[in-house]
């Protein structure tokens, strides 16, 4: 006959618990994952990553309806009893569309700097990140790094790390050169209309950086002329506009003159709205869009046009 081992709670404090204060003891005994009412959850302030109700969102909604939220969102408690999303804005939105009242969440106590760092890093794995999203997330991340460095005793940091600037440190984290980090952060100085053109690949990064040094009124004029003449400034033209702006001689007439110049080796171009491509192929990376369009046209030539010409 076997013996049944019974575990009795004798009320003794475990060795690990002896070194915890009352608050830590309470928190350690709570389950890590909670069901939090969606109505108590707020978005992260100035969240730089866009949440789109696109095809990817529809798929996520269907997945949540079938299997629930597989990966809990990450929240930070607020002083008013509400919660702030650190990671999971798309999942929370999908739960709202699916008609759910609660969402599974990992609730963590974090400082503002810690929250910013986790929020940015948890979104950088996305397959498609727009230049504007990089711009504002890099800026927030850089400010958090600087804040943390000010609070850290640098005497305990190795000399090699001390020599690194905050921008170099951020570049290593996100896989960009510090020059590219600087360029993306400069995009935050663009007016929304020009920044949207960068997101749509109508203006390249370097000319956009030069335009960011213009005044807001000058940027508005540049955007108007781009729309009027259906052409965007080259890097060289943007540099000249920045120089003229610094010298106080960038008039509306000067902007129009520069915009309308025929660029070296200028060719006719067809601009296709990237959002229209993504409506057909969700999640299309910017750098793959041209290749996909050319392949589709080649398929059309071989399998649609060629048979028609042969049958004549």
Describe the fold and architecture.
The structure is a single chain. The protein has 312 residues and is of the alpha/beta class. It has 4 domains: 20-109, Conserved hypothetical protein from pyrococcus furiosus pfu- 392566-001, ParB domain (Alpha-Beta Complex); 111-189, no CATH class; 204-260; 274-310. Helices cover 53% and strands 7% of the residues. It contains 15 helices and 5 strands. The chain has helices at residues 22-28, 55-67, 89-97, 112-123, 131-151, 159-162, 166-174, 178-186, 192-199, 205-211, 216-229, 235-246, 252-260, 274-280, 286-310, and strands spanning 33-37, 41-42, 73-77, 83-87, 102-107. The protein has a 5-stranded mixed β-sheet.
Specify the CATH class of the largest domain.
Alpha Beta
**H/E series, N to C?**
HEEHEEHEHHHHHHHHHHHH
- The biggest beta sheet, please? 5 strands, mixed
Radius of gyration: 27 Å
Structural class category: alpha/beta
Helix content: 40-55%
Supply the CATH architecture of the largest domain.
Answer: Alpha-Beta Complex
Gap from first CA to last CA: 93 Å
Number of H- or I-type helical stretches: 15
Reported by name, the CATH topology of the largest domain is Conserved hypothetical protein from pyrococcus furiosus pfu- 392566-001, ParB domain
Strand order of the largest sheet: 1-5-3-4-2
The best one-word shape is: flat
Q: Kindly report the average pLDDT value.
A: 82
Any idea how many domains?
4
- Low confidence ranges: 1-17
Q: What percentage of amino acids are in beta strands?
A: 5-15%
Number of DSSP E strands = 5
């Amino acid at each position: 006959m076997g013996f049944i081992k019974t575990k009795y709670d004798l009320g003794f404090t475990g060795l690990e618990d002896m070194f915890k204060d009352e608050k830590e003891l309470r928190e350690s005994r709570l389950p890590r994952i909670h069901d939090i009412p969606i109505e108590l959850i707020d978005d992260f302030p100035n969240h730089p990553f866009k949440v789109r109700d696109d095809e990817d969102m529809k798929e996520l909604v269907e997945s949540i309806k079938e299997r629930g939220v597989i990966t809990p969102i990450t929240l930070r408690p607020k002083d008013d009893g509400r919660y702030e999303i650190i990671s999971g804005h798309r999942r929370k939105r999908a739960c709202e569309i699916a008609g759910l009242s609660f969402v599974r969440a990992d609730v963590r106590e974090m400082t503002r700097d810690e929250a910013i760092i986790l929020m940015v890093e948890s979104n950088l794995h996305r397959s498609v990140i727009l230049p504007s999203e990089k711009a504002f997330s890099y800026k927030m991340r850089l400010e958090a790094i600087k804040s943390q460095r000010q609070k850290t005793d640098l005497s305990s940091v190795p000399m090699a790390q001390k020599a690194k600037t905050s921008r170099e440190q951020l570049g290593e984290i996100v896989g960009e050169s510090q020059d590219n980090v600087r360029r993306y952060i400069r995009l935050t100085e663009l007016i929304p209309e020009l920044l949207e053109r960068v997101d749509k690949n109508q203006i390249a990064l370097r000319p956009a950086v030069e335009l960011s040094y213009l005044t807001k009124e000058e940027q508005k004029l540049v955007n108007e002329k781009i729309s009027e003449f259906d052409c965007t400034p080259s890097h060289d033209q943007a540099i000249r506009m920045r120089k003229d702006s610094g010298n106080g001689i960038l008039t509306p007439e000067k902007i129009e003159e520069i915009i309308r110049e025929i660029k070296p080796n200028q060719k006719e171009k067809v601009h296709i709205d990237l959002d229209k491509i993504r409506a057909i192929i969700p999640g299309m990376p910017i750098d793959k869009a041209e290749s996909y369009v050319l392949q589709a046209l080649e398929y059309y030539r071989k399998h649609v046009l060629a048979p028609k010409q042969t049958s004549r």
